[in-house]
Design brief:
heterodimer; A: alpha/beta; 6-stranded mixed β-sheet; 4-stranded antiparallel β-sheet; 10 helices; 10 strands; 39% helix; globular; B: 14 helices
């Protein structure tokens, strides 16, 4: 579904991605692991069209989308749940959700999608007129995910959805990822919590210093000595 | 109506245009110190049109606002990539440039044995359209407020539509807005042009009320004030800048309550508000609270409006 070929993205002269190759298959949950500064967020931003790659191609369903502006990529059906800057803080929960549907032109179904989001996340309905900035971290993450879903993505990109959240909330988020995947959503998720990721991911990539250094199934990953030590701890 | 009162109210009305102009940009998250440039451009352009080319007032006003809007469109491109402080400096530099150009701008023609037109730092005298056409001060005040009301209605309408939501998204987080599929360039240029047009309307009104403009009127203090009005009155609704202007001109300048200390009081007011209400008296939360209270009080009208607007 998504093929990333030899992508190089640079901040000035410093190359954060030094030729990344990876692929996301339709209907699967693909997980990208890697230490801080490896280029995970840079890759997500590049796919989403926020950063422009210096070189390489990104093909989505056969079409090259590398270097296209973000709005065109959203229209193609790739939506990013960004890290940290999750919600429009001074807008209400409902306004945030509607913001997610901006790229859509089918006004009537937006309303029913909004109701579907409230059904999936009852918390958000209770708080629909509250300012998003007043929500807890977990609720903001839920809001960010449902806002992304409001765009009816074909591929959902998630940049460290568990960052800074309590273990119970993290479990919630991974439960949602699995639910979405069961409903047919393709998900590409950046995650540091490899143990949680093992429960949902169909395929793993490990990126270090701007390059993919491992590529395999969960089973292959669990057998890899280096990954076992660095990302899974000794218990496994 | 008392002449002094008419004058004060007219002043409030005219200055509100430039405050609204700064407010539109504040909505999109940009602080401009240069909206006085568009006020000035339109004051000159409309004055030239009516006093020198013999155009009617309304045509002159349209022309003045149009020229200001076009200048804003041109300015939008180089400032598009500037954020925060850099945008503020960029717009300030532009406004000073415009002011200095008017300092050396000579374009005069002879009308009835008298030289009319901009004469550099001497200013531009004889923009007498409304006096020659017997429009009373009261009538002119009504014209100002009719135009102000239209601009306010326009801004209220914008705030309720998709465009308003996009402006606020851009104001909060440009990158996150882009991730939702917002065409940032398009909407930022749009906001700059709308701001330029609004300041332009005010500038044309100003020139015709005073019959005389000179470059130093459009100095940076006018820009600073126009920003401060929005910040005092509140950024939650387009009424905020009007409240800010009314407080400053209506209360401080006109009542002579604080003769000689006006700027001290004004500056103090800004400082206090920045601490206690950083987004003004009528900020988003106040507006939100008022709206919810209104809805609770009148549940039937709310349902009605929901039926009317099925989006």
């Amino acid at each position: 579904m998504l093929e990333v070929n030899d992508i190089v993205t640079a901040y000035g002269k410093i190359e954060a991605l030094k030729g990344v190759d990876l692929a996301v298959s339709q209907g699967q949950v693909t997980c990208l692991l890697g230490p801080n500064g490896a280029g995970k967020t840079t890759l997500m931003m590049t796919i989403a069209g926020i950063l422009r790659p210096k070189r390489g191609s990104i093909r989505f369903n056969g079409q090259d989308i590398a270097g296209k502006p973000a709005r065109m990529i959203v229209e193609q059906g790739i939506v990013l749940v960004p890290e940290n800057r999750l919600v429009f803080r001074d807008m209400t929960v409902e306004e945030n959700l509607m913001a997610g549907a901006f790229s859509r032109s089918d006004g009537k179904t937006v309303q029913s999608d909004l109701e579907a989001m409230y059904e999936r996340f009852p918390h958000l309905q209770e708080r629909s007129t509250q300012y998003a900035g007043t929500l807890s971290g977990g609720e903001q993450q839920m809001l960010a995910i449902s806002r992304a879903l409001m765009a009816r993505p074909r591929l959902l990109l998630m940049d460290e959805p568990s960052l800074g959240l309590a273990p119970l909330i993290v479990e919630d988020i991974f439960r949602i990822i699995r639910e979405l995947n069961d409903e047919g959503m393709t998900v590409f998720v950046v995650e540091q919590n490899a143990r949680m990721a093992l429960q949902v991911a169909d395929h793993f990539y490990l990126i270090e210093q701007g390059k993919v250094v491992f590529d395999g199934t969960p089973g292959e990953m669990e057998e890899d000595e280096v990954i076992k030590r660095a990302y899974l701890g000794k218990k496994i | 109506m008392d002449d002094h009162l008419i004058q004060v109210l007219s002043n409030i009305g005219m200055i509100t245009f430039i405050a609204l102009s700064a407010y539109v940009l504040l909505l999109t998250g940009e602080i401009s110190f240069g909206q006085q440039a568009f006020f000035a451009i339109s004051a000159y352009a409309s004055g030239i049109a009516t006093a020198m080319w013999g155009w009617s007032f309304w045509l002159g006003l349209l022309w003045g606002a149009g020229v200001a809007g076009f200048a804003a469109f041109l300015l939008a491109w180089p400032t598009l990539r500037m954020r925060g402080l850099y945008f503020a400096i960029g717009t300030l530099a532009f406004a000073e440039m415009v002011r200095l150009i008017f300092e050396v701008f000579h374009y005069q023609i002879e009308i009835d044995g008298e030289m009319v037109g901009p004469n550099g730092s001497e200013g531009f005298r004889g923009i007498r359209y409304i006096f020659e056409n017997n429009i009373s001060e009261f009538q002119y005040m009504m014209i100002i407020y009719a135009l102000l009301a239209s601009v306010l209605v326009f801004l209220f309408a914008i705030e309720r539509t998709r465009v308003g939501a996009i402006f606020r998204m851009l104001g909060e987080d440009e990158l996150l807005a882009e991730m939702q599929g917002v065409n940032r360039t398009y909407y930022k240029v749009m906001a700059t042009v709308i701001a330029g047009l609004i300041a332009g309307i005010g500038g044309a009104l100003f020139a015709h009320m005073n019959t005389y403009v000179e470059p130093k009127i459009f100095n940076v203090m006018l820009g600073v004030h126009s920003l401060a009005y929005g910040l005092i009155g509140g950024l939650g609704t387009a009424l905020g800048p009007l409240i800010g202007v009314s407080l400053d001109i209506g209360l401080l300048e006109s009542t002579r309550m604080f003769t000689g200390y006006r700027m001290v009081v004004f500056g103090g007011l800004v400082a206090i508000l920045l601490i206690f209400r950083p987004r003004g008296l009528l900020d988003e939360e106040a507006v939100h609270a008022i709206r919810s209270a209104w809805r609770r009080k009148t549940p039937s009208t709310r349902q009605q409006s929901e039926i009317d607007a099925p989006d």
